[in-house]
Design brief:
This protein is of the alpha/beta class. The chain has helices spanning 6-27, 34-47, 58-68, 85-93, 138-148, 200-209, 231-264, 292-301, 328-333, 348-358, and strands spanning 51-55, 76-79, 97-100, 123-127, 153-155, 163-164, 167-168, 175-179, 193-197, 278-279, 285-288, 337-340. The chain is built from 10 helices and 12 strands.
């Protein structure tokens, strides 16, 4: 049993993957080749925004977005501590301060009711994370941001394909960012990511920043990074896009079935709460347990793979450690969460075995 099954997915698209990669090898445009533009156009259309800018990773997507918005030394960016290090790391890398706001205990996303009190004259942006495949409450977040004249960046590394009030993740704020790391709902065969926006000016800046701040050959009006998505990754993602709608539907079905099985057995776990306004792509299927270590040992003994996303909130990470903020919910839940195998090809029998082992 696999935690994430990329091999079964590959067998569905093997011929298309080879054809796409062969096309790149034949035209030889390995950097910014035509597949990059095709991918950007198709993703922009699917998400429902004017612009998609392919970049070298989901981490660089956050960096490029913040650079385009002018985040720099002395600024503050409000975000969640209950996420992967990249979210806070890129804020710190720019010399800005991550300001951590605690999470909603049901969705595990940033609690909008706590954001306003964290805003100071130094606040430059708000960066909610759409964790585990479910979007944060963007209408509430955007209303606060608008009141204070702040941009909002969605860290949608885990949520591409999810919806909020019928709108797609990464089309919900000033800039949406996602990752195409192989294990993500839409994953490549290496690192890559993308930024999304309806703002023409920001799109232009992000396109320049990803190529060393260049607006034309050997002319660099701003400092940028080497943040391009390579053509072969774009080709692989194009092959995978043809499966994406089917896989999103499968993720929703499998996630809902997990919850139904666990709840019907009356097992002592908190299953994912999906807000009525949302759909989730279940980048992870995550439970809460007061007896996490014992449960993980039982699953390991049955050779069922598990993971913990995330055992240490960012305010407790040595690189970003701080005691400045009240983050009791994040700190409590980080000791209870664990994730079960989750992918679009998980069989009913495997789900039943996993749930039987849980109980």
């Amino acid at each position: 049993m696999n935690f994430i099954d990329l091999k079964t997915q590959y067998r569905q698209i093997e011929d298309d993957v080879f054809a796409r990669i062969r096309g790149v090898l034949e035209h030889g445009q390995y950097i910014m080749g035509p597949e990059v533009r095709e991918l950007e156009e198709r993703l922009a259309e699917r998400v429902g925004v004017k612009h998609c800018i392919g970049v070298s990773s989901g981490t660089d997507a956050l960096l490029v977005a913040m650079m385009a918005l002018g985040v720099g030394p002395g600024d503050e960016v409000i975000t969640s501590p209950f996420t992967f290090i990249a979210t806070g790391e890129m804020i710190a890398l720019l010399g800005a301060k991550p300001v951590f706001v605690d999470i909603d205990p049901q969705t595990y996303n940033i609690d909008p009711e706590r954001i306003e009190t964290a805003i100071t004259p130094k606040t430059r942006a708000i960066m909610p994370v759409s964790l585990y495949g479910q979007c944060a409450d963007f209408d509430a977040i955007n209303a606060i941001a608008e009141q204070y004249g702040l941009p909002v960046i969605e860290d949608g590394a885990q949520s591409l394909g999810a919806t909020y009030k019928g709108r797609q993740s990464c089309a919900l704020s000033t800039v949406g960012c996602t990752s195409f790391f192989p294990s993500k709902p839409l994953g490549g065969y290496g690192d890559s990511g993308a930024c999304f926006t309806d703002d023409d000016g920001l799109a232009k800046l992000m396109r320049e920043i990803r190529v060393h701040g260049q607006d034309r050959r050997y002319h660099h009006p701003r400092v940028g990074i080497n943040g391009r998505i390579d053509t072969i990754q774009a080709a692989v993602l194009l092959a995978k896009l043809d499966l994406f709608e089917t896989e999103v539907e499968a993720r929703w079905r499998i996630g809902a079935r997990y919850s139904q099985l666990i709840q019907s057995k009356g097992l002592p776990f908190t299953t994912p709460f999906i807000a009525e306004r949302n759909t989730s792509v279940y980048a992870q299927y995550t439970l809460l347990s007061d007896e996490r270590d014992a449960v993980l040992e039982r699953l390991q003994a049955a050779e069922i793979p598990t993971a913990v996303h995330y055992p240490v909130p960012l305010n407790k990470q040595p690189a970003l450690q701080t005691t400045e903020f009240d983050l009791a919910v994040s700190e409590r839940l980080s000791g209870k969460v664990f994730s079960l195998p989750m992918h679009p090809y998980l069989s009913d029998s495997d789900q039943e075995q996993i749930v039987a082992t849980l109980g």
